[in-house]
Amino acid sequence: MKIFGSILVLFGVLCSSCASDDEQTVQPGKVQFSLSLNSGSSGGRVSETIPPESVVLLSLAKSSGEIVFVQTQIEILSFGASYVTAPMELPPGDYIVTEFLIVNNGSVTYAAPKEGSKFATEVLDPLPRAITVSANGVSNFEMEVISTRHQEPQAFGYVSFQPDLINPIPLMIFAESDGGLAVSGATVRIFNDHVEYEFREVNHMTTIPFRGNVDEVYTLEVKRLGYQTFRRTFTYEDLLTEVDGHALVVTLLVQHEISVEMYPIPGKSYRMVMQIQDEGVLYVDWGDNSPPDTLRFPDDTIEGGNAAVWHAYDPPFNKFGISITGDIDLISAMSMPSDGEWNGPQSSILMMDMKNAIALERLSISGAYISELEISETQSSLRNLDLSNVTISNLKLPERHNIRYFEIILSRIPYNTLFESLYHNAVKYGLLGIITINIFPSSQTEEILQFVKLYEEREWEVNIGGSCNHEYNCP
């Protein structure tokens, strides 16, 4: 993990503000950081030493977003077992620390983690961190840093620890949310006809290394599930002139889509089947930079009015975000990504955002581990929920729903929680008859037998163990 060790000062240098003849000159303040070493193993502070000749690489911005400097080098002073940075002068004001690294012999040995990263929960105040510098004094801030030993930069929220910030692009990425702006991480891609660079899980305030020719034209692409993809062309020199000492601000606009975030098994082909109520078109972006699949209805439909797409992911094993756009408000039936196999390794679905499928009547998922599935109150048309061959940790049903057919197997959900939702919804809203529940438990527990109430009181068809068992009063 080598890093460019010399000072990189972007877009100008700081100077003291000069006052008029009848005003006093504002004196600069000083800032220094006390270093707190953390092993990153939830054990908190550790008794480690920072090797001699180590330095801090600090990236700083003003609260307005203007870049002050990127990875400027600061000396580390040791006092016994304690370490502080040498005081550095700054004009009084509010600043944001965006990067903080400790380097020895060109290698990063410690890093302050960024918000949203793996190690962010190991410290009290992850980056970006706001600080205030006062005039005529020294402002001291404790900075927790974690050992980078055997860890990747992404675990700390950094794009890279490599010496490639010779031509940096400072970015501030936001997402439109609830009428305002919410901080957002994303995947950033820089490419043209000759080269392509991709950076995953980018922190909202970061510096992207530009490795291309400063005079050539490139495309900057910023993507995040649930939002429209941001794209623009640029040359590096023109971009520096445009931002004029500030970070490039990217705002991602909300996109009405169906989103799925998953870890697919490399090499396996995944099928997605959909049906819509009328004529329309759907676009499936598999999240791996392959061209999106297009489904046109009724042109691409087969028997039964369904249209299907297949996709295989290349190694290595990684997380991908699938988005479905187009006439999603017309989708009446969906079978979500499945490899069609009941045995063998299964994909892991981390998140499914289905709330925009407001006309959905039938949803089927199989062959996957699901962290959480939430059915929205907007999906009042949903009648059929088939979770056969799914291991699901959390299923959230709205207070009122119209599910008439429900099938689940190999579930980790407490069956009493599931019963409470189905039973009380049926009683409160008077749902009677022609309703089927198939439950495939590993054992006949008292929790499961509660579902018999749905047969006895509501005239539902309740099958436990895959077939009707009269011992448990199902028809």
Radius of gyration, in angstroms, nearest whole number: 28 Å
> Helical amount among residues, as a percent range?
under 10%
pLDDT < 50 stretches: 1-24, 467-475
User: What's the shape?
Assistant: elongated
- Please give the alpha-carbon distance between the first and last residues: 66 Å
Report strand %: 35-45%
Q: Mean of the pLDDT scores?
A: 79
Main sheet attributes: strand count, strand direction, barrel closure: 9 strands, mixed
Number of strands: 34
Total domain units: 4
Structural class: mainly beta
Number of helices: 4
Provide a quick synopsis of the model:
By secondary structure, this protein is mostly beta strands.
Give short descriptive properties of this protein.
disordered N terminus; 9-stranded mixed β-sheet; 475 residues; Immunoglobulin-like; 4 domains; 7% helix; disordered C terminus; mainly beta; 4 helices; 8-stranded mixed β-sheet
Itemize the secondary structure elements and their pairings.
Layout: E1 29-38, E2 55-62, E3 67-79, E4 82-85, E5 88-90, E6 93-104, E7 107-111, E8 129-133, E9 138-147, E10 168-177, E11 180-183, E12 186-191, E13 196-202, E14 205-209, E15 218-223, E16 230-234, H1 236-243, E17 248-252, E18 258-263, E19 269-276, E20 280-285, E21 293-297, E22 307-312, E23 320-326, E24 331-338, E25 347-353, E26 362-364, E27 368-370, E28 373-374, E29 384-387, E30 390-392, E31 395-396, E32 405-409, H2 415-428, E33 436-440, H3 446-449, H4 452-456, E34 461-464
Parallel strand pairs: 1-9, 10-17, 24-26, 25-27, 26-29, 27-30, 28-31, 29-32, 32-33, 33-34
Antiparallel strand pairs: 1-5, 2-3, 2-6, 3-4, 6-7, 6-8, 7-9, 10-11, 10-14, 12-13, 12-15, 15-16, 18-23, 18-25, 19-22, 19-24, 20-21, 20-23
